[in-house]
Amino acid sequence: MLPAIHVVCFAMIIVSIKEQGVTFEHFTRAGGAQSYLQQSLVAARALDQAQRGNGNNRTYTFADSETFADDLLHYASQYREENNQDLITRVYVSAKGIFQNYLTWHSQNINIADTPHGELLLESGASIIPDYNGVLDALLEAAQTETAKVSMLQLIFLVLEGCFCTSCVAFALVYLLRTACDQRYQLYETFLSIPVGLTRALASQTTHMLDDDESDDEEEDDDEKAEAGSGGAGSGAGAASGALVSSKRRALFDEDPDEEGAEAGPGAKPGKGGKGKADGGEDSPRKLPTDKSRGRRQPSMDLQAPPQERSWFSKLRFWRSNSVAPAPAASHRELKRNSRIVYGMLTITGTYSVLIILFYSICYAILMEAHDMVAIQSAVASTAERTYGTIFFSQELLSQTNASHVPEHVERLRSVSSGLRDAYLTLRMGASAQRVLGPDSETFEGVTGNGVVDDSPEMTEIFYGDGVCLRLGQHLPCPDPEWRYFQVSRTGVDGMFTQLFEELESLTKAALAAASAGDPLPDLNSPQWDYIYNIGMQDLADGNVRIEQQHRDDITSMYRTIIVLHVILFILLMVVFVFFILLVFMPLLRRMNQEKRRIAEMMSQLPNELDVMKLVSAALVGGGKLGDATAAAADKQLRKSKSMASGLTVAGGGPADKLRASGGQNSLLDSGSFRSGGDGVGDGARAGTGALPAIDVDAAGTKQWKDILNRANSMAASKQLGLSTGRSNVGSGKL
């Protein structure tokens, strides 16, 4: 489930990043289109001035007319591809008209500015830019929305997938695994609730039942030998009866030689009661070896015996203190609940959750800067566009020959240069630029952080790199050191812009002073225009292109990093999932299959009289607590067993269905042991006491185990009656 959820989240993030990239690309191209318009306007005015014979060798001459005509058509075509407004289409048509007729008009002494196509471009072209700013604002808002969407998805998936889903799955898995473990333990505890003595009795009873068919002939031979050895005497008959019974394999367990005399029946001697000559004397199977009869192959029996039964030499062997000795048998068998499956599952889910939270947190922290980087793209586009606009209006001012028009053109130039200053300082300093420019400066929506200077080392090199040529494409190769502006062109974008603002201020002051004094107006031969055109149209223009490309690369690199982090996270989560399958899930399945076989084997060892389904259902449903229907069925089965055992007791001995359950800690029920009834051999025929297996069980399962015990005793009593027909009662038929 978790991998599927992560795949969905991963796909949604990738799709949102792609949508953000598409929206940002549209905004970038729309901002660049403004620069195309300004370049086409600069080329149109330069073509007009070149055909008039203005200019010089430092800027342009009539020989550059063809170049300007090509640039006019090229940039107008680029601008039209990015827009579909009617006025923009008219600009494109006018550019094509000028390109087609500029040579004809020159031959006819017609200036381009005096033609309809020239007037449209030079008078109305610049007015398109303010109207187009609304489109840029809408595209910026769309780009910021998509950027915020990506960041919000990171945060949502951090909480949803990393915390909520993982926690829910972890709790569900832990609950299911704990439930499964509890059922497994309850199944095992169902078998452990059988007392130790009863378990051994069932095993011994199974052994006798299997041996009955194989030893029928041997029992008949033993009967004949017993009758021949007895000689018809009454005492011999008793001995033969004991020998007959002792010829069968008996389960020797929970025997305490110190207690044999105390529990022996009437007429029996401790440790030797019922021993006859016909059975071969010392070959009696009930005789246990003593310390004296121990051979040389048993040197460690003293160390393995309890401390009170060891010899004094064994007690002095302190260097064997680290040897393992059997602990006394516990009266209660308990199943240690030490399964670590739940902890393994918690470790897996915890690792899964930590990875998701860690990676999503890193991605969200990285994307916190994305909103400001997208917003500052408007300052990047405005800087490039206003650089060309400053060059265009400077050329317009220098093209004027009427002093009365100079103040108007100076005002336009100052307005454009002021906007260029605001855009550039915002690009370099971010939101802090307003403190430098003042409250009346232009603010760019969404810019709240620092500028782009420190976004990457490459961006810093563009702004402040010393000795770096920033020219691109058609402006190559870079000029030689003998060029008059070589040093300033190697100071980075910041140095060139600083010098540009000074030249613009000097140009406007000189134009106003000349117009006021009636002196000759500045023209295209002024030194200010030399710097503005050569540095602005080549080095600064290409520097702006580098800034735009690098800024786009920085944003793309940031989102590429996000994608790489998500891919790494996806791989790590798949590795965790594979480890879960290989190290937790598959071993758990194998273990459960083994336990199924083990439980089936344990069930197969239970007697047929036991209702296994009711027992297992009680263990799985209530952990040992039976329902009303189950309890009623168990009581009915118990009463039936008691009636059968009572009938057998009347025929052959004492009551076999009575359990000593006094409730005290020293009662037989609490002793947890089961002792075989007396058979006249070895233990003095304890049948007279009527002792039965003592069962240590809880109140919920007592009826079931009493029923098992009564059935086992009933079967044993039936067998004893069949073997000792006509003999005296030797016990209550216990196993």
UniProtKB/TrEMBL annotation:
Chain intervals with Acidic residues compositional bias: 211-225
Query: Which of UniProt's keywords are assigned here?
Result: Membrane, Transmembrane, Transmembrane helix
Q: Where are the transmembrane segments?
A: 155-177, 341-367, 563-589
- Superkingdom as given in the UniProt entry: Eukaryota
Q: Which InterPro entries match?
A: Tiny_macrocysts_regulators
Q: Which residues form a coiled coil?
A: none
- Residue ranges annotated as compositionally biased, kind Basic and acidic residues, are 276-293
* Cross-referenced PANTHER family: GAMETE ENRICHED GENE 10 PROTEIN-RELATED, TINY MACROCYSTS PROTEIN B-RELATED
Identification of the protein by name: Uncharacterized protein
